[in-house]
Amino acid sequence: MAVYSMTGYASVVVSDPGLALELRSVNGRFLDLSFKVADELRHLEPALREALTAAFKRGKIEVRLAVQRDRHRDADAPSPDQLRQLAALQAVVHGELPQAPALSVAEILHWCRQAPAAGDSDAATSGLSEGARAAFAQGIAALEESRAREGQKLVVMLLDRIGQLRTLAAQAAPLIPAVVQRQQTRFLERWHEALAHTGEKHGDVLSANEAFYAAINRLMSGSADGMDAVWSHGADVSDFGPDGNLYIATG
């Protein structure tokens, strides 16, 4: 069974029609999606969200989808159709605002580069949408692989930590009887001090205490048989009340 981390990264670049996709995932208790999508592809966000929800259940995932402009296209001259369209728009503006300044060459070139040529708008939008869907399918697969790789690193780290804990437990096991013996000795010393003040002897209590600590020593060695003889949860001895507190019978 594969272990997946919630941390991962994936990127996809589609040269035609010119798209760049980035997916970043970090730890999150629930699935938290955020999108930074180019305006031309904003209509795809619901479908992208649905695809991510189907693929992942937890983590905070950030999606960046940008359109990369063709540098060669920027050097192309404006088409006649674009210039006629822009001239018509400028004439309308000047008809209403005679004092408005005329467009500069730089402004004309900028507008023509940003606006598709007449008849190209629908085709360009369709090409971007298809390219975005393809990029997103690749990106989700790449992010799953990235999270799986990070998950494998976590498995290796956890197994290493478990091994270290087992080593420490093995080193501590021989020390446990001595610790129990010290605790027993301290208890007996204080018990004898208390008896010295009262002048009474309670041999049965001392015997029960010694049997209890002996059972603890056997328990630490892997045997719980002795605890049944020295520990009781009967209602006449001890009981856990409705509020969770332990009550000891004294009478």
What topology emerges from the helices and strands here?
Blueprint: E1 8-14, E2 19-26, E3 31-37, H1 45-55, E4 59-67, H2 71-74, H3 80-96, H4 105-114, H5 121-172, H6 176-198, H7 203-220, H8 227-230, E5 238-240, E6 246-248
Helix pairs in contact: 1-5, 6-7
Describe what you observe in this structure.
The protein is of the alpha+beta class. 55% of the residues lie in helices and 15% in strands. The strands form 2 sheets. Strands 1-2-4-3 form a 4-stranded mixed beta sheet, with helices on one face. It has a two-stranded antiparallel ribbon with strand order 5-6. A hairpin with a 5-residue loop joins strand 5 and strand 6. Helix 1 runs parallel beside helix 5 and helix 6 runs antiparallel to helix 7.
Feature tags:
251 residues; alpha+beta; four-stranded mixed beta sheet; two-stranded antiparallel ribbon; 6 strands; disordered C terminus
Give a brief rundown of this model:
With about 250 residues, the chain is α+β, with helices and mostly antiparallel strands.
